[in-house]
Amino acid sequence: MKKRFNPIKDKSSEIIEFLMSSPDIPDDDALQFKLRLSIEEAVENVVRYAYDGGIGWLEVGTSLDHDSLILTIELRDAGVPFNPLEREDPDITLSAEDREVGGLGIFLCKQLMDNIEYRYEDGNNVLTMTKKV
Amino acid sequence: MDVKITNQDNKTLVVLDGRLDTTNADRFQQDVNPLMQMEHPDIDIDCSGMSYTSSQGLRIFLMLQKSVLAHGGKMVMRNMNPQVKEVFDITGFSNIITIL
Predict the structure, then answer these.
(1) Which of A57, A101, B3, B64 could make an S-S bridge to A6, C-beta 3.0–4.6 Å?
(2) Residue A58's closest CA among A111, A114, A113, A9?
(3) Residues 66 through 105 of chain A touching chain B, CB cutoff 8 Å
């Protein structure tokens, strides 16, 4: 299933709930926790940073390969070209005093999903996250 | 998410109930702001009702922990559900915040 949201300012919750309601997502609390967190972080990333003033669209979708049971979540936007995977991972060994506040969103996606890929295609940022379900 | 904060015998008890996410993180930050002004805070956070936290919640817990250390205080978080605990583990927060 797929849907384009426009505009996306203040629409994070609606977009997250749309994806979480997908029939491609199995009824499994532990798995849903990880998927919701990954989806929230990826969606927030676009809603907050992709467009100046949040005026723009975000197309989101899910698909499930019924043979491999690999769930794919895709986000596409036409905002500022930005590869979130290039951001350096936080150093999780630092003390509280030395830890930087923030920068955990995409790191969480990387940890909780099996794979994340970014590409810039036809003027769009495309983020694809997959997980065996 | 519901946040209850009570002060008793120089101890601050915080009870969290619900999902801490992008919709309520700003309000949660306002709720805990006064705790960041205290000298020698002694904060006990009951997480038994907290079913979820996103990075927006984590950043507030880190700010709180930094503030507690800077003010010569202490803070513990207790009764975290296993999924929330896993988020604290994979981000290294379990090493910098006392979780009982």
Answers:
(1) A57
(2) A9
(3) 90, 92-97, 99, 101-102, 104-105
pLDDT the model gives residue B58: 97
Task: Quote the domain boundaries for residue A71.
Answer: 2-132
For B45, the enclosing helix (H) or strand (E) is strand B42-53
CB B18 within 8 A of CB B1: yes
Considering the segment(s) B2-99 as one domain, its CATH architecture is 2-Layer Sandwich (3.30)
- Whether the CA torsion A34, A38, A41, A44 is positive or negative: it is negative
Closest CB to B92: pick one of A30, A44, A93. A93
Structure confidence by residue, pLDDT tens digits, A15-69: 999 999 999 999 999 999 999 999 999 999 999 999 987 689 999 999 999 999 9
> How large is the ipTM?
0.92
Can you give the residue ranges of every domain in chain B?
Answer: 2-99
Tokens standing for B24? 């309520």
Provide the whole-model pTM. 0.95
Tell me the C-alpha distance between B13 and B52, whole Å. 20
Q: ∠ CA B94-B97-B100 to the nearest 5 degrees? A: 75
Vertex B70 angle, CA B64 and B71, to 5°? 90
Question: Using an 8 Å Cβ cutoff, are A5 and A14 in contact?
Answer: yes
